[in-house]
Each structure stands twice: as structure tokens, then as C-alpha cells.
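Researcher: We plan to redesign the surface later, but first we want a full-length starting point. C-alpha cells attached.
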């Protein structure tokens, strides 16, 4: 069962619709311009309560953008977590093979297992686009959140003209419980990490992707070319399982944090909207800030309590069988390509033949080529 009870088709539809960033550039520029203009406008001035309410109201359009980006990030992290669970579910029949000391021979001599590994690997590598889009969403959250933070804190600091007044302390409570610096730092860190993971998967996909898609090889090639390709494939193959585990581990860690950020943006928008509508009324008193904060949903993550976020990375305990035997697998792929056997089951047939020979003749590297380095 996938998270949130989404079907595979629903997940794919979600991934297709989430990321249309064509108008984001102008939106971010507008938010930055608003923050700069607002800060400059009140520089060196004491801001009255009516003016503050108006300025808060003018931030709503940018808060709405921030909330939208936060929701996109939240939905996309759920999609990523669902994708990780789907990959593990498809890969799970291979767990005994990867845990077996003779797992490589089993893998190479069983066409069904090899095909399952190929399909799982292609799924893992396909998450690079989702990771890249998630990083984009998080970076936009950071940009908008940072701009709004600067402007709102500046407005509040100018309300009384005195940083020691009780009135200012009351208005400062409008932002109580929202640790802007911690949120920005955490989100930036996650965005940087998943951006790098997306690049790592892209690098692997560039090397082994065409082979996994059964790209046709070309005629005979020189031995030095095959050896160079062997090293290239070995390096890429050794990174597949660790990269999968790193992505899933990051998604598990990120999930409740991203939910909390999305919730915090909605919470902030609620506070700003209520302040803008109430502060200009004749009945307004600074102590009403406490009621506004209390009326808006607390900015705390409920993801773990509602079960939408996974509790653990399912791939964490999978041995790196591919990494342990990357040199041998690299030889097989390079030789298959050199012999024009890629595609149409040719590479799988060579793998099966090589595995059978390895089982019969032990470590005879001259016949199988599996133990060459």
C-alpha cells in the first residue's frame, strides 16, 4: 500500500502537473521588489497601526505564492516517498539474492532476476527528475520565505519606534513560534543535498541508462576500448545501490520537515491576514495579537502522527552486491557491447553463460573474464 493511498496512475499524473515553473521567475522578482520597496519605504520612520495593517495586507499575494510552493514541495516529497516504496516493493524479491554469498552467480544465471534488477535500476535512476524538481520547489520556498521574513520583521520593528516598548513586544508575538532562520537553513540544506543526489543519479544514468534501455551495440572494438568502458561501467554500477539508499534516507528525513514548512507558511498567512483585517478597527488593542496567534493553526508537523511520512528507509539494509562485484559486471557489460550483444536479450544470454562457466570452473578468470581487473 502506497502512502496516501495513491495509485500509480495518480502519482504519475501528480508528477506531470506539479512542476510548471514558467512564471516563477517574474513572481520571485516581484516578491523581492516588494520586500525591498517596503523596507525602504519605512526606513527611519515610525509606522502607525493602520499603515502596518495595509503593508501586511500587501504581502498576501506573496504569502500565497509561498504557500503554493510549500504545498508543491509537500506533495512532491510524498510522491518521492511513494516512489521509493514502489521501487522497494518491486525490488523485494531480489533481497535474498543480494544477501547470498553466491548472489552474483544466481543473478547472472537467472534471466528473470536480471530483468527485475534492470527494471528496478531504471526506476531508481528515473527519480533524478523528481529530485531536481523538488530541489527547485524548496529553493523557491526559501526565496519567498526569506523576502517575506525581511519585510514583516521590518514593519513590526517600526510600529512603535522603540525596541524596548511593551507595545513592540506584543506585536513581535505575531511571529512567535516561527523560527525563520532555522527553517531557511534546514530547507537550504535539504535542497542542496537532493540537488547533488539528482546529479549523481543523472551521471549514473548517462553511463548505464542506454544499456538498461537495451541500446544496440556496434560491431567489434579494440581491447583498450572495452577495458576503458569496463572501468566506466564498474564505477557507475557500484554507485547504484548506495545512491538509492541515500535518496530514500533523505526523503524519510525530509518528509516531516517539508510538511512542517508548508504548514508554517499557511500559519503565517493566517496570522498576517487576521492582523491586516483587525488592526485597523477602532476596537483594536495590541493584546489582540495573542488571540490571532491562538486562532491560527500551530505550526507543528502532523505528518508522523497521520502516517503520511515513512518511519524508515526500507532499502537501508540491502547489501551492495553490485558494488562488491562491479568489476566483474563491468567486464560483462563492456564485452557484451563490444560483441554487439546488447539488446534483444544478448547481454542477458552472455551474463547467463558467464555465470554458468564461473560456477563450473571456480575462479578461472581466463575463461569467464569475471575476475579480471
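Model: Full-length starting sequence:
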Amino acid at each position: 500500500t502506497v502512502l496516501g493511498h495513491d495509485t500509480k496512475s495518480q502519482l504519475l499524473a501528480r508528477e506531470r502537473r506539479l512542476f510548471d515553473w514558467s512564471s516563477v521567475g517574474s513572481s520571485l522578482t516581484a516578491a523581492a521588489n516588494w520586500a525591498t520597496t517596503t523596507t525602504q519605504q519605512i526606513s527611519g520612520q515610525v509606522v502607525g497601526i493602520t499603515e502596518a495593517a495595509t503593508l501586511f495586507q500587501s504581502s498576501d499575494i506573496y504569502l500565497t505564492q509561498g504557500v503554493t510552493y510549500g504545498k508543491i514541495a509537500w506533495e512532491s516529497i510524498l510522491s518521492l516517498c511513494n516512489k521509493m516504496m514502489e521501487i522497494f516493493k518491486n525490488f523485494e524479491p531480489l533481497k535474498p539474492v543480494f544477501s547470498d554469498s553466491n548472489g552474483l552467480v544466481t543473478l547472472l544465471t537467472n534471466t528473470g532476476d536480471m530483468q527485475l534488477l534492470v527494471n528496478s535500476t531504471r526506476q531508481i535512476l528515473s527519480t533524478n527528475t523528481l529530485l531536481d524538481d523538488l530541489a527547485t520547489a524548496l529553493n523557491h520556498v526559501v526565496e519567498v520565505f526569506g523576502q517575506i521574513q525581511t519585510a514583516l520583521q521590518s514593519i513590526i520593528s517600526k510600529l512603535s519606534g522603540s525596541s524596548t516598548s511593551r507595545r513592540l513586544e506584543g506585536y513581535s508575538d505575531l511571529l512567535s513560534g516561527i523560527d525563520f532562520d532555522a527553517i531557511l537553513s534546514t530547507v537550504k540544506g535539504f535542497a542542496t543535498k537532493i540537488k547533488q543526489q539528482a546529479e549523481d543519479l543523472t551521471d549514473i544514468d548517462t553511463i548505464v541508462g542506454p544499456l538498461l534501455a537495451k541500446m544496440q551495440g556496434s560491431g567489434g572494438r579494440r581491447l583498450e576500448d572495452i577495458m576503458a568502458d569496463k572501468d566506466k561501467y564498474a564505477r557507475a554500477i557500484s554507485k547504484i545501490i548506495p545512491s538509492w539508499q541515500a535518496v530514500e534516507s533523505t526523503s524519510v528525513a525530509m518528509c516531516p520537515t517539508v510538511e512542517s514548512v508548508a504548514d508554517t507558511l499557511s500559519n503565517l498567512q493566517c496570522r498576517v491576514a487576521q492582523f491586516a483585517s483587525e488592526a485597523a478597527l477602532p476596537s483594536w488593542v495590541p493584546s489582540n495579537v495573542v488571540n490571532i496567534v491562538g486562532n491560527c493553526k500551530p505550526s507543528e508537523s502532523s505528518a508522523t502522527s497521520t502516517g503520511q511520512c515513512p518511519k524508515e528507509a526500507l532499502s537501508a539494509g540491502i547489501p551492495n552486491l553490485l558494488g562488491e562485484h562491479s568489476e566483474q559486471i563491468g567486464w560483462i557489460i563492456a564485452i557484451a557491447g563490444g560483441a554487439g550483444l546488447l539488446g534483444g536479450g544478448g547481454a542477458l544470454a552472455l551474463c547467463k553463460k558467464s555465470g554458468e562457466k564461473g560456477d563450473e570452473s571456480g575462479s578461472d578468470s581466463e575463461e569467464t573474464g569475471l575476475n579480471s581487473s
